[in-house]
């Protein structure tokens, strides 16, 4: 079997990395991994086989080339000889179909007989999560280089699963950021995802603003740590008080906030942002009467993008332009930020 071209391998790895960056749902990443591996190697079967932490049995989480009935019924002990060795040692398995032992592949057989296969461990932080399985009816279908490439896909699968688990644990622990009183970013993203679903189904609009405190570092250097934290908290409270019940605000970065405005187009978001910036500029914060301003980038669905990722990227680039233009400004594009169409600045 000819090895797939490097350009295609790198492209598929890049696509999986992009998905890993933009979602907390490991199922989406695993589905993409399986799809891209099948496209690369034209294999008979590709499956992500994971350890159920509650039962310590193996189950099939994502697959192509298997029946739903088989996957639902599949339940295997980890201790199976060759599979157990793969899971415990992390050493990849490569069956070429040329081995003198005709039963060499039997331990790794899933639903269908095969001639050759490759299996690579899925693990993170030295914890084994399962393995990636591919097989083919051709002899010697997977080279040593192919096994290395499959290990990269397996490593990305491990990172996706771990990211998803950490995200879920974080949501269970606490939703509110203690320093600002706003939502933490993961639960805020849940609200943003729900807004996207409603808007796409009902043909509605919503807007995203990203704010950055202009003089936060100067405040910390001049007035000290406690004063800078109090400034941040009071600005966050002002932001919170400016919202309608249907809106939401979260902490985006150390001194950055993100706002979602339901049922609002870009023009409405700019009106809101100008009013908010003016309130912040006129306010005196902390017992030391510290003055502060914020810069903002705005984006609205669907004008500035068809996904939440597009909206956030457009708002982030708007924020950058607002800061570059002198701060205490709100900046928005009329289209996606990278198109640079009719960009305009609002003071």
Verbal overview:
The protein is an alpha+beta fold. It has 2 domains: 6-172, Beta-Lactamase; 185-346, 2-Layer Sandwich (Alpha-Beta Plaits), CATH 3.30.70. The protein has 10 helices and 12 strands. It has helices at 6-22, 26-41, 68-73, 81-89, 144-173, 185-202, 216-223, 225-241, 266-282, 308-324; strands spanning 45-51, 57-64, 76-77, 93-95, 116-124, 127-136, 206-213, 248-253, 256-262, 294-301, 330-332, 344-346. The chain has a 6-stranded antiparallel β-sheet with strand order 3-2-1-6-5-4, sandwiched between helices. A hairpin with a 2-residue loop joins strand 8 (248-253) and strand 9. The protein is elongated, with a radius of gyration of 26 Å. The mean pLDDT is 91.
User: Low-confidence spans: pLDDT under 50, at least 5 residues?
Assistant: none
- Could you tell me the strand content as a percent range? 15-25%
Q: What number of domains?
A: 2
Largest sheet: 6 strands, antiparallel
Based on DSSP secondary structure assignment, what is the total number of beta strands?
12
* Number of DSSP helical runs: 10
> Might you state the CATH topology name of the largest domain?
Beta-Lactamase
Order of neighbouring strands in the sheet with most strands = 3-2-1-6-5-4
Radius of gyration: 26 Å
Which structural class fits the helix and strand makeup?
alpha+beta
Order of helices and strands: HHEEHEHEEEHHEHHEEHEHEE
Which CATH class of the largest domain? Alpha Beta
CATH architectural type of the largest domain:
2-Layer Sandwich
């Amino acid at each position: 079997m000819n090895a797939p071209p490097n350009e295609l391998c790198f492209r598929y790895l890049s696509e999986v990395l992009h998905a890993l960056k933009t979602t907390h749902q490991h199922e989406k990443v695993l589905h993409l991994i399986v799809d891209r591996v099948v496209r690369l190697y034209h294999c008979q079967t590709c499956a992500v086989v994971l350890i159920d932490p509650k039962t310590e049995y193996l189950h099939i989480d994502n697959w192509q080339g298997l029946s739903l009935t088989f996957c639902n019924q599949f339940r295997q002990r980890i201790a199976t000889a060759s599979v157990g060795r793969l899971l415990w040692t992390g050493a990849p398995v490569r069956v070429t179909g040329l081995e003198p032992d005709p039963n060499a592949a039997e331990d790794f057989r899933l639903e269908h007989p095969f001639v050759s296969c490759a299996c690579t461990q899925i693990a993170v932080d030295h914890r084994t999560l399962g393995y990636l399985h591919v097989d083919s009816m051709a002899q010697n279908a997977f080279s040593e280089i192919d096994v290395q490439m499959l290990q990269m896909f397996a490593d990305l699968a491990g990172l996706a699963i771990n990211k998803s688990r950490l995200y879920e644990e974080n949501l269970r622990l606490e939703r509110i950021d203690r320093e600002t009183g706003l939502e933490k970013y993961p639960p805020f993203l849940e609200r943003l995802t729900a807004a996207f679903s409603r808007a796409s189904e009902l043909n509605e609009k919503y807007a995203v603003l990203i704010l950055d405190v202009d003089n936060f570092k100067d405040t910390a250097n001049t007035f000290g740590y406690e004063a800078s934290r109090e400034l941040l908290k009071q600005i966050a409270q002002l932001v919170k008080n400016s919202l309608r019940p249907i809106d939401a605000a979260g902490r985006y970065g150390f001194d950055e906030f993100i706002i979602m405005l339901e049922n609002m187009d870009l023009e409405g978001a700019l009106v809101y942002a100008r009013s908010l910036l003016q309130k912040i500029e006129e306010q005196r914060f902390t017992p030391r009467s510290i003055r502060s301003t914020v810069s903002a980038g705005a984006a609205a669905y669907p004008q500035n993008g068809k996904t939440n990722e597009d909206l956030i990227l457009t708002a982030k680039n708007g924020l950058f332009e607002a800061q570059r233009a002198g701060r205490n400004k709100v900046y928005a594009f009329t289209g996606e930020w990278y198109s640079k169409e009719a960009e305009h600045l609002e003071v």
